[in-house]
Amino acid sequence: VTLGQLPARECSRRLAQQAIVLRLGPFTARIGSPLGDVAGSVRRLYHDFHVAPDDEGARFALSIEQPGSLRRYLRPQVQLVFEDALGPFEPLPRRLAPALVEWGLNWCIGNHGHEFLVIHAAALERGGRVLMLPAPPGSGKSTLCVALATRGWRLLSDEFTLVDPANGDIVPVPRPMALKNGSIEIMQQWAPHLVFGPEVIGTEGTRIAYARPPRDAVARASERARPGWIVMPRYGAEQAPATWRIPRGRALVMLADNAFNHTMQGQRGFELLAAIAETAPACRITYPDVQSAVDLVERFCSASAGGR
Amino acid sequence: VPRAWRTTHTLTWRQWEDADEWVVFHAGSGGLHLLNDSAARVLQVIEGQPHTLEALRARAVPGLAADPATLHDLLESLDRLGLIEPEGR
Question: How close B17 gets to chain A, by Cα (Å)?
Fold first, then answer.
């Protein structure tokens, strides 16, 4: 059964009882919250995700709760509870509760998903090959990821490229896709069928909204793929659309800079990253708008024999 | 007596034909560094066998100025990266 198939009331009740275990690619996560807006957002964004049996052990367990102090009446807050202990974040303003589910899951995967080599990069697949988009915040990585995920590329993740250390396969972990500020409206126009969760205002005034991942990407979350291409995007309203090839050695260092845990994997971690750099041609692109970014990516991926 | 420089740990190398650059992985720290061709050659000579600065100069590594100050600076840089150390440290 998928979360969207559960009646809304049952979904809220089970979330309040911490009795929802979702399959997130290779992971399972027990998610709980007594808060109505969290329940609404989770049901909307994880609509197509399979709910694992209630009694199944979960790889991660997290809950979004309000601290039980007088403060809740003065300046309401929410906090992340991870594995029955307070999570890594300071309590946040109450309005951020829906986003805290995503930040909490990102934290779980980035800091605890050590059965994989975890690289901070969006990942999309086509023809069995993976396009990786490693880039810092503000580069337009997530916007480009959403754009490609609605134009023929299969979303593997908008945040993490997971590499199986046993064989170098890239393992999908599709989840809601994060958009910020003006990108929200741009993507609403770009793909009018996209379903969005509630918009929240971050602590620094940033508008944040998550888009539901495509149903096909969720259904095919167990289909792994091989490294294909690496593209580092950089958005700039005044930038001319352009592509620069990145030599393989530099691509390898860039991958390591974006890896959460390659040092924990020692020599094997290095070998895995080097194999990706060896296989996947890399480039940097600058772009002034989404359509030109998609065009540059398509041109690069067609021209360079990805993963060969 | 000038001390010889030696590598601090096992090194793993990667190089591709698309650039005159090398990537070296230092298994001790898990660190990964991008080196230009002459720095890589000096490090590879030291990796083969500890060398003093004078001995390195005598090897006349291609691409590296004969100027001892340049070589000295390079060795200092490799030391700061934790890739080499003077023997007996």
Answer: 9
How many residue contacts between A and B have a Cβ separation below 8 Å? 51
Q: Does A275 touch chain B (CB under 8 A)?
A: no
Give contacts of A263 with chain B, Cβ < 8 Å: 29-31
Distances (CA, A) of A151 to A155, A190, A291, A294, A295: 10, 10, 11, 9, 11
Model ipTM? 0.91
CA distances from A169 to A26, A120, A191, A276 (A): 13, 16, 30, 10
Distance from CA of B54 to the nearest CA of A (A): 31
Q: What does each of the 308 residues of chain A score in pLDDT, given as a tens digit?
A: 999 999 999 999 999 998 899 999 999 999 999 999 999 999 999 999 999 987 778 999 999 999 876 666 667 899 998 887 777 888 899 999 999 999 999 999 999 999 999 999 999 999 999 999 998 888 889 999 999 999 999 999 999 999 999 999 999 999 999 999 999 999 999 999 999 999 999 988 999 999 999 999 999 999 999 999 999 999 998 999 999 999 999 999 999 999 999 988 889 999 999 999 999 999 999 999 999 999 999 999 999 875 54
pTM score above 0.90:
yes
